[in-house]
Design brief:
The complex is a heterodimer of chains A (494) and B (393). In chain A, 25% of the residues lie in helices and 22% in strands. In chain A, the strands form six sheets. In chain A, strands 1, 2, 3, 4, 5, 6 and 19 form a seven-stranded mixed sheet that branches. Chain A has a five-stranded parallel sheet with strand order 8-15-9-10-11. Chain A has a three-stranded antiparallel sheet with strand order 12-13-14. The two termini of chain A are 37 Å apart. With 393 residues, chain B is an alpha/beta fold. Chain B has eleven helices and 17 strands. The longest helix of chain B is centred in the last third of the chain and has 18 residues. Classes of the chains: A alpha/beta (494), B alpha/beta (393). Chains A and B meet through α10, α12, β22, α14 and α15 of A and α4, α6, β10, β14 and α8 of B.
């Protein structure tokens, strides 16, 4: 038995020093997160509850974390002044503080890790947090994830302008921020989410012009919607148009007769589906699986609380929102109906990278590369699918759809739906497009480890620091080899 | 997956990474009937998860790489996003000294390097700041888009009649009478006259089946990506302990720093986590390019790299079985791929590389390596506690 060696350039021994440790870290201060934090603190645990609201106006503009569609008032631009109203709006926070929960608002969680496969060097669970100024790490014994769910967006002509938004984002702007700037709404979708959205809007004194359903019948009973709201089944949005402030009207088409109508509105709310906000779970390496009833790729959990990771549990909608067994089938039908309306060239599926539905389906190279070669022009989705099942991450690499600063929040699900329709397969078979830290798009200067451990700096190498790796070939095996030892420090290979 | 009735091929390449695909493409260009088998999707491992650098001047393949890269878009018929040249610049005196030595070494090798003053550095790299001490301009080398390039090889191979079978991991090398006769996969057995193993970390176990020793240690290395910035005159801008590039789209993609050794089964990595090291990378990038400090980081990634004990590639045609050629590039596979594929083609068809001596990259150099070399080197998964002890010594 020989002595085990040690590689000083590897990660082992340099695990980041968390600036603090808590027994229980709760991410998300919605009702479920607050309840979980209260339960934990009453059980005698030390609890830190963080919530990213109020988020910076700049992130809201990117539709992070929710699909706000630009329909917020200027109040959200002053994050510091939003903290108090957000605190007041979240019922139960005062009680949680009273009970001993420590609360930080306006704090993002951009990553979380537990020791496991490929992470042998990580000594203990750690989460990455940040505000607008800096980032820091918090160690935890238990993580309760109450990250909620977000809206599934599907594009149609004119959708990429202010005023087209998601139902969850509307709820947040109305109930948490009190900063919704629209007045006249059209709601897309006819299930429970659409009905609740319509009731919420009417209850807040907003006008709901119409509820639109592409399918022949509504998914929930008419009496679930507020009285007097027009309900149009078998209709599809065909064009949202407006001016510099975004949507002013929506043209809808009767899919049976072809007749079109134009509805005056300033906001179009997509209430077609919710998908659990699993990005932190994916970074953590928790098991996720397509569970249509729960709204898509959802955590594998026996009871809606436990995850495949012993240190991580769920609270609330991040476990999935029951939308019926056909939730993904329904979404796919919506995507098919909107696809049939046409406008593949003008519907920008990925707004960040300006990838149209036509470009996605043709696996077209991005426009910065200029016109495609003859060979490239002959390549399309059909030929790619001949070589293997549809994979969103592969198509993203080629088209850039989903690679922008919104981190695919606006387009992730609709790319899967569009691919599935093009391949004539169920969207339930499309693998999850992976999430990576940071799961919030934060500036280099904020994420930067200004508090870096000196050992990290002392042992930093551009690459692996393998002795002799960069010796010029002619000198290998000659007495010149020794010349290169230490000549370049850790900065040889660039 | 069901068994396929797909026939075998004259040459089978195991591994649809950049090296295997380039080799297959070169073979197809020579009219050879070639089939690539991949465990998953082409370019899914380190070939599609790397820094895109093409400046490995220490390699015997480098001159051929430099000749080929500017021609690759046309030869392949697809864009690789190749851009020429690199700027390496120092923000402190130590780095200045080290980069000057690097420049001298390159000059000794016959490659042109220009010295840059801080103003010149900022001209080439406008995101650089007032902290620049000096720079060197490599008038060679360059960078390309790994994901687009790997798909370009795959498509170009198909355009020349080659075949690719994805989701078909090689389970067993079939031999008969001292020669390789085929490969077994869950999707059927495929016969061949010659086998190329370019299977990344999985190559070691495959080679062991034919009694050959290919010592490999896989490790994970991390990178970060920012949102796009306006295009700089030179996209390959390195320094401050980082390697990386500005993509043609404008994103900054940078890596460096500590890696993690892994154990990997025949199916490949179960996960490729990136870690809080992204904070250390962010810091270095904000220091290197202060005018980019407000750019948002939108992704990170980790690629799993297989390393040989000396960190140098293996490109070799075995003597027994004589119809098996092996390649593993130990971290420099992407940049050298135009030339490594050419070399493998030569070894398969002609028995020797036509443009470079590869003798020192032979697999034979490892015959006397102790079985427990990874443990001796500390190149195995290591806990935090072991790390603390090691760093204290």
């Amino acid at each position: 038995m020989t002595a085990r060696g040690f590689d000083p350039k590897a990660q082992a021994g340099k695990a980041p020093n968390p600036s603090r440790h808590v027994e229980v870290l709760v991410i998300g201060a919605g009702p479920a997160g607050i309840a979980a934090a209260l339960a934990a603190v009453r059980g005698g645990a030390e609890v830190l509850l963080v919530d990213e609201n109020p988020v910076a106006g700049g992130l809201m503009g990117l539709d992070v974390p929710l699909y706000y569609g630009g329909r917020y008032t200027g109040a959200v631009q002053a994050k510091a002044r939003m903290v108090e109203p957000v605190f007041a709006a979240k019922a139960g926070l005062a009680e949680a503080i009273e009970a001993g929960v420590e609360i930080e608002l306006g704090v993002y969680c951009w990553g979380a890790w537990v020791p496991g496969q490929g992470l042998a060097s990580l000594p203990a669970p750690v989460a990455g947090l940040a505000d607008e100024e800096r980032s820091w790490l918090v160690g935890f014994d238990r993580l309760i994830l109450a990250a909620g769910a977000r809206d599934v967006a599907i594009g149609f002509p004119g959708w990429a302008q202010p005023g087209v938004m998601g139902a969850r984002a509307l709820e947040s702007l109305l109930t948490v921020y009190d900063a919704f700037s629209g007045r006249r709404l059209v709601i897309l979708g006819s299930g429970d989410l659409a009905a609740r959205t319509a009731r919420l809007a009417v209850g807040r004194g907003l006008e709901v012009v119409a509820v639109i359903e592409t399918q022949p019948a509504f998914r929930v009973a008419d009496d679930r919607f507020p009285a007097g709201v027009e309900r149009l089944a078998g209709h599809a949005p065909v064009l949202a148009s407006g001016g510099i402030d975004g949507v002013e009207r929506l043209t809808v088409r009767n899919l049976v007769t072809g007749a079109e109508r134009t509805l005056a509105c300033d906001t179009i709310v997509e209430a077609i589906g919710l998908t659990p906000a699993v990005e932190l779970l994916d970074v953590l390496g928790a098991d996720l699986a397509m569970q249509p009833r729960l709204g898509g790729h959802a955590p594998v959990s026996p009871d809606g609380v436990a995850t495949s990771l012993p240190q991580v549990s769920l609270a609330g909608d991040v476990a999935g929102v029951d939308q019926g067994p056909d939730a993904v089938v329904y979404r796919q039908a919506w995507a098919r109906a909107l696809g049939a309306v046409g406008g593949d060239d003008e519907v920008i599926v990925c707004q960040c990278e300006a990838v149209s539905r036509a470009a996605l389906l043709a696996v077209r190279q991005p426009t910065y590369l200029g016109p495609p070669s003859e060979a490239m022009a002959a390549r399309g989705l059909d030929r790619l699918l001949d070589d293997g099942p549809a994979n969103q991450d592969q198509i993203k690499r080629l088209t850039r759809a989903g690679m922008g600063p919104c981190q695919g929040r606006r387009c992730r699900e609709q790319i899967a739906l569009t691919l599935a329709n093009a391949a004539n397969i169920s969207a339930e078979t499309i693998p999850l497009a992976g999430y990576r830290a940071p799961v919030r798009p934060l500036p280099l200067s904020v994420l930067a480890a200004w508090d870096e451990d000196p050992v990290m700096a002392a042992t930093w190498d551009v690459w692996f620091g393998i002795k002799g790796q960069w010796t010029p070939y002619a000198d290998i095996g000659t007495d010149r080899e020794a010349l290169y030892d230490g000549l370049f420090g850790g900065d040889m290979h660039l | 997956m069901t068994d396929l009735e797909t026939p075998g091929a004259s040459v089978i390449v195991v591994g649809g990474g950049v090296t295997g695909l380039s080799a297959a493409w070169w073979l197809a260009r020579s009219g050879v009937d070639v089939l690539v088998l991949d465990k998953g999707i082409v370019g899914w491992e380190a070939s599609g998860r790397n820094g895109g650098g093409a400046s490995h001047y220490h390699s015997p393949l480098f001159a051929e790489e430099q000749r080929l890269w500017p021609l690759m878009d046309e030869m392949l018929g697809y864009s690789t996003e190749y851009r020429r040249e690199r700027v390496v610049f120092a923000t402190n005196a130590l780095h200045h000294q080290q980069y000057q030595r690097m420049a001298q070494m390159c000059r000794d090798l016959g490659w042109r390097v220009d010295d840059l003053d801080p103003a010149q550095v900022r001209e080439f790299v406008p995101l650089a700041g007032d902290n620049v001490v000096s720079g060197i301009h490599l008038r060679f080398g360059g960078q390309a888009n790994p994901q687009r390039t790997v798909q370009a090889y795959a498509w170009a191979l198909q355009d020349r009649g080659g075949r690719i079978l994805q989701h078909a991991p090689a389970l067993r090398i079939v031999t008969s009478g001292g020669r390789v006769t085929g490969v077994e996969t869950p999707r059927g057995r495929f016969g061949c006259d010659h086998l190329v193993v370019a299977a990344g970390p999985q190559g070691e176990a495959l080679l062991r089946q034919v009694g050959a020793r290919l010592p490999l240690a896989p490790a994970r290395a991390e990178m970060i990506v920012t949102e796009p910035a306006p295009l700089m005159p030179v996209g390959g801008a390195d320094g401050n302990g980082l390697y990386g590039r500005q993509t043609l789209r404008g994103n900054l993609a940078y890596g460096g720093g500590p890696h993690e050794w892994m154990d990997i089964g025949p199916a490949g990595p179960e996960r490729r986590p990136s870690t809080p090291v992204l904070r250390n990378l962010s810091r270095r990038l904000a220091e290197l390019l202060p005018k980019a400090a407000q750019l948002r980081v939108i992704r990170s990634w980790a690629g799993v790299v297989e390393n040989t004990p000396d960190g140098r590639p293996v490109i070799d045609r075995l003597s027994d079985p004589g119809n098996l050629t092996v390649a593993t590039m130990s971290g420099v596979g992407f940049g050298l791929s135009p030339a490594s594929g050419h070399a493998i083609r030569d070894l398969v068809l002609d028995g020797a590389c036509s443009f470079a001596d590869l003798g020192k990259l032979s697999i034979k150099r490892f015959v006397d390596l102790p079985e427990d070399w990874r443990e001796r080197a500390g190149w195995t998964p290591t806990s935090h506690e072991e790390g603390l002890v090691g760093l204290r010594l």
